[in-house]
Every structure is written in C-alpha cells, then in structure tokens.
Amino acid sequence: MKDFQDMEPCILVIFGATGDLTQRKLYPALVNLARQELLPKPFVTVAVGRREKTDEEVRAEAKTAAGLAKHPSAKDRHTASFINNLHYFRMDFDKPFGYQKLRTYLNGLDEIYGTKGNRVFFLAVAPHYFGVIAHELHHHGMSKGNHGTWQRVVVEKPFGNDLISARRLNQELTEAFGERCIYRIDHYLGKEMLQNIMVVRFANTLFEPLWNSRYIEEVQITISEDVGVETRGGYYETAGALRDMVQNHMLQLLTLIAMEPPVALDADSVRDEKVKVLRSLRPLRPEDVGRQTIKGQYSSGHLNGRPVVGYREEDRVHPDSEVETYVALELYIDNFRWSGVPFYLRTGKRLPIRSAEIVIRFREQPGVLYFGKQPNSLGPNLLVVKIQPEEGIYLQFNAREPGTRSSITPVRMDYCQSCILGFNSPEAYERLLTDCIRGDSTLFTRWDEVEYAWSFVDNISLAWEQIGQQTELYPAGSWGPESADRMLSNNGHSWLFPFQCLLTERPVLERV
C-alpha cells in the first residue's frame, strides 16, 4: 500500500462515461481530488462510451458535473490539468474489434504523458457488461501488463443477483485480473463515519471492554430512504430490498460493528475479521423466517406534505408485484462475543426521512439504588453512529437533573463531524478512487465476503418462497409494516427513531 505522495502515474479508463454514475459521482470526485492534489502525477482519464463525442464535449460535461461550468478556465492549475488530461474514446463494449483500438490508443497516451502502462478500469456500466469487458480486456492483453506495471478493475454493485450468478461473474473477473486486482465497490464503505467505527471501537478503552453480550442489550442498524424506486422500477422488480440493500450495505455495517480486533490494519487482516462475522451469522431456518424477517412494500401515501404513488403504480413495475421495498431482520451472531444479542436490521423506501445510523443499546443497571427508587425511570445508555445525512457520534447516559428535586434525566454528548466549521467530509468515491490507485483494497469487498453474504441472503429468499412469506403493504411516509414493531416487541424491544428525527427541545432519543 502506498501513501498519497507515492502514488504511481496511471490512466483511469471509465467504461460507461456518459452514464449517470460518472456524471453524478465520478467527475465531481475526480475534480475534488485534483484540487487537493491527491491524484498521481501524471494522471490521465479516458472516458469510454458508445455515443459520438469529442474530447472538448466530455471536458465540458466534466466541468458541468463538477460545478465548474460558470468558470470554464477552472480555478487552479491542478483542476485545469485534470480537465485537459481528460479524453474520450468511442466504442461498443460488446464488439471485440474496439478493444484492439483501445489498447493502441492507451499505449499512445502512455508515450505522450509518461503513465508507464498502469491502468485502472472502472466499469460504470450495466452488470451484464462486467464479464464481457473483463474477458475482452484480458483477450487483448490489457488486464495483465508487463513486469513493473499494474492493472486493476473496479466493479459497481450489484455483483450478481444471487450466489450462482455472483460465482459465475467472479470466475470471469478472476480469470482476467486475479483476485488481488479486483476492487468491488460498496460506496457505503467509503463514507467517513464507516471508517471511523474501528477507531471509535479499538482506540477507546471507554467502549471496547464493553463491546460484548455482557454489556450490550441490542444493536439496531437502519438505512431509511424517503425516495421511491424512481426510474429503477425495472431493476427493483428483479432485485428487491433484500438483494439491493441487505446483501451489501446492511451486512457490511453489521460486520464492522461486530468484528474482532484485526491483528493489523492491512486489507487482508481487516477483511479476515469481517468474513468471520458473516460465517458466524446464524442461518435462518424456514420456521425462523416467519418470526425474524419482515417483507414490506410501500403503498400510496403522503410524504413531506405531498401525495406519492405506491410501488405498484411506479413505472416498469408489475401491477400485482410482490417485490419488497422494505426488509426488517432479527439476526444473531453465534460466537463468544455476541451470544444472545439480537441485531435488528431495517431498510426501506418511502420512509419519513433519509437516514443511516447504527444504535448500540447497553444493558440497564440492576434494580437497586436510583433505579429501584424510580422504577423504569432511567433512560438506556446509547451509542449512536450517525452515517448520513449528518455524520458523527451520539452518546446518551444518565445524570442528575439540576435543581432541588433528586431527579435523574438522560443527557447526551453529541459529536457532529459534518458540522465542524471549515471541514467537509470527502465523498465516498473520493476515498475509494484514491485507495484503488494506491493499491489499498481495505475498503473494498473481497470475494469470500461477497460469497458468504449471498449465501446468507439466498437462504432467506428460498425460505420466503418455501413458506409463502407475504409482502405487507405500508403507507408511504410511515415507518414500515406494523409487524416490524411486533418482531421487536416479542423480545421486549422497540425501534428507535433515527437521530435526525429529534427535535431540538428533545434531550433524549425517543422510541417509535
């Protein structure tokens, strides 16, 4: 792994450069990195697409995407250098003859800029092109270069749509590039607070000695979205929330919270511990699925004061669709540290707010002293990791309320990282792009992580089919099916509001 100052020159080749991901995420991230001088020198970007465009046109698109359209000359020489080193190459991804021309074109850029044959191939394309592009790059000698050069491939989710397709895709990529040169992106792992979880845990004696079933009552992980499926109705009909969110984002959050301390902070050591968590997940038997999983779908309702249609009325959605837009799970990790602690996961669309956070609820004190004199009056000790839209850490504990009465009240300590004046958390793609260029795969998912995650999720899908699990409707703008509340109440628990739902006058985290 190289430091930022030691990054080697390279060419970033973006397949699908005219698509939404490139315009919304990649171009802005690259411009921000250029401004901060966090790109190697020299660095060249080649946008590959099927449309007829010129270099000047894609440079104008990049300026617009990065908010530079009103300042065409760019504000600094580093940004100007990135824009000037952006080129366009037109080709059809499924036509072999185009790859030989691409190889010749890239070799010519090596001679002009001195990029030494190093390549990052970013596949910002539909998943069915992943294997095709990898095969053709390998067949035309671009996936494994001469000694002293490196070639890496970055693939977006979804990585397959089940275990069988994921294995097939992995074989195609591995044959072309080898496992160590495959970078599977889960953009959640690039978020600043996700990277902070290990620091909070392992750098503080305040938390790590308590991070086990003896002191922790429950863990809740919530990713809520206020949007519907929008233009992705066709995709969602084949995926659903279980495959779209649980298989990658949700299980990644779970592994970071539950993993053991790694022996080192290198990529393999960290990912080894994450895999151990996935291997320790208790499989859900068909008889467990009815109690420990909730499958929901939003119907019409009101959100932010306006009416919204139900999922079945969305574009490219079957009018009788049973596809889930909401999933809630009660999971257990069968190892020494977490024995008996429920991990509650929930994710859904058309919920009241956009939020992602992890809530760790510590066990309550024995019924003596203050608690014995004031039954059920003590608030729980909570640690909340706020991931989006606000980033930070929230800690709730009990203290004496000021005044003459001996009352106890929950109070909070709130660290808002994204609120710090003059500090802007880098976008996830900024960190992930630089890590790939540096050769640091810590924040990318390894194949065995993907394999165990798909195996676990496929087991749930199969059980749903076997028992005929019903998809429950919930009104858009609500917090999901009522059965999700009952799932927790069976254990004496209840869902906690996301932190963003708090009003300023409320001093403690409230329950739904």
Q: Which helices and strands occur, and which strands form pairs?
A:
Blueprint: E1 10-15, H1 20-35, E2 43-49, H2 55-65, H3 77-84, E3 86-90, H4 97-113, E4 119-123, H5 130-139, E5 151-155, H6 163-177, E6 182-184, H7 192-202, E7 216-224, H8 233-238, H9 240-258, H10 267-280, H11 286-292, E8 293-299, E9 301-303, E10 306-308, E11 326-332, E12 342-348, E13 355-362, H12 369-373, E14 382-388, E15 392-400, E16 408-416, H13 428-438, H14 447-467, E17 472-475, H15 482-489
Parallel strand pairs: 1-2, 1-4, 2-3, 4-5, 5-6, 7-12, 8-17
Antiparallel strand pairs: 7-13, 8-11, 9-10, 11-12, 13-14, 14-15, 15-16
Helix pairs in contact: 1-2, 1-3, 1-13, 5-6, 6-14, 9-10, 9-14, 10-14, 11-14
Question: Could you give a short description of this structure?
Answer:
By secondary structure, the chain is of the alpha/beta class. Helix content is 35%, strand content 20%.
Describe this structure in words.
This protein has 512 residues and is an alpha/beta fold. It contains 15 helices and 17 strands. The protein is globular, with a radius of gyration of 24 Å. The C terminus is likely disordered.
Strand content: 15-25%
The N- to C-terminal Cα distance equals 45 Å
Question: Can you count the helices?
Answer: 15
Strand order of the biggest β-sheet: 16-15-14-13-7-12-11-8-17
Mean pLDDT: 89
The secondary-structure class comes to alpha/beta
CATH hierarchy: architecture of the largest domain = 2-Layer Sandwich
Low-pLDDT windows of residues: 69-73, 503-512
Oligomer: single chain
Shape: globular
Instruction: State the CATH topology of the largest domain.
Output: Dihydrodipicolinate Reductase, domain 2
The CATH superfamily of the largest domain is known as Dihydrodipicolinate Reductase, domain 2
